[in-house]
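Marked as duplicate of an earlier ticket. Keeping the data here for the record.
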Amino acid sequence: MEPLCTDPGHQRRGLAAALLAEGIRRVVALGAVELVLGTGDDAWVNAFYARTGFTEARRVLVHRRLFTRTA
């Protein structure tokens, strides 16, 4: 179900919510019982998914280590 985005010129018209609803309808018809997606820390994105019926399942902590090359 991701990434899901709407062209800036067409935002705030319900298009992403309609697309998400149709995608959910289709996977449920195929037998899905759960849909999991990752959103990151973007408050607006998380609010969108909350408005469309998703609930926070867990938070993930990601670690990384960067290395520099020396000539």
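See parent ticket for discussion. The two ends are 43 Å apart (CA to CA).
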